[in-house]
Amino acid sequence: MVKRILNYAGWLLIAIILGFLHMRIVLGPGSKSTSGGITFLNGIHDFVLWYVGSIIGAIIGFLFILLDIFYLNKKLQHSKKATLIRLSVIIGLAIIIGATHYFLEKIANVI
């Protein structure tokens, strides 16, 4: 049981990193100016990067864990490529969730 929890904690960490990567792509790099107003905006940029990136990563991780518990464990029980398939599934989920977030934020103007 502990091994399974640690395994899912690792997948959750990968999902959160993918969430940060998505937000880094959406927000772009922060500016490097040292003036007072720009420094404040850099702080907001970093906060949004960490806050929204962790939320998106948690959503990716939650959906992946549900998918893994209810579907992938049964299908990949004796497969030698189980880790590679799980990695491709979590990357696919990140792409789908990232595209949905982008659509809702930029095109539909909901977020």
From TrEMBL:
The keyword Membrane applies. The chain crosses the membrane at residues 5-27, 47-72, 84-104. Keywords: Membrane, Transmembrane, Transmembrane helix. This is Uncharacterized protein.
